[in-house]
Amino acid sequence: MKVQWMVGNGESYFDVVRKNNLKGIVLKKADSKYKIGSRSHDWLKVINYQYVDTYITGLSKNLFGLLLAVEQDGKSKPGGIYGVHET
């Protein structure tokens, strides 16, 4: 699979990513090599974080976790469970 790339204009490119609700971009030094199984300061992941207001509607019974809801069209909709792990 080929990956889209460009040289320069990282801020402008990230603005396009943000406007299209994409996950993010990776910035790298031009002369750096990818290192399998390790992190490098030569490669930087820039994430397009997206936030939404949520409401805590309860606790899960068997596993620790908060039950969440989001408001959609003036109504409360299930939003998922946050922090689930066995106790």
Task: Give an account of the 3D structure.
- This protein has 87 residues and is mostly beta strands.
- The chain has two domains: 10-47, no CATH class; 55-85, no CATH class.
- The chain has one helix spanning 10-19; strands at 24-28, 43-47, 55-59, 64-72, 75-85.
- The protein has a three-stranded antiparallel beta sheet with strand order 3-4-5, with no helix packed on it.
- Strand 3 and strand 4 (64-72) form a beta hairpin.
- The longest helix is centred in the N-terminal third of the chain and has 10 residues, at 10-19.
- The termini are far apart.
- The model has no long low-confidence stretch (mean pLDDT 86).
- This is ATP-dependent DNA ligase family profile domain-containing protein.
- Residues 12-46 form the ATP-dependent DNA ligase family profile domain.
- It comes from Niallia oryzisoli.
Helix/strand order: HEEEEE
Overall mean pLDDT score? 86
What is the rounded Rg?
Answer: 19 Å
| Biggest sheet strand line-up | 3-4-5
Briefly note the structural class of the backbone: mainly beta
Which regions are unreliable across 5 or more consecutive residues at pLDDT < 50?
A: none
Instruction: Tell me the number of structural domains.
Output: 2
Describe the biggest sheet? 3 strands, antiparallel
Number of helices: 1
Name some characteristics of this structure.
three-stranded antiparallel beta sheet, two-stranded antiparallel sheet, 5 strands, 2 domains, 87 residues, elongated, mainly beta
Task: Give a concise summary.
Residues 12-46 form the ATP-dependent DNA ligase family profile domain. By secondary structure, this protein is mostly beta strands. It contains one helix and five strands, in the order αβββββ.
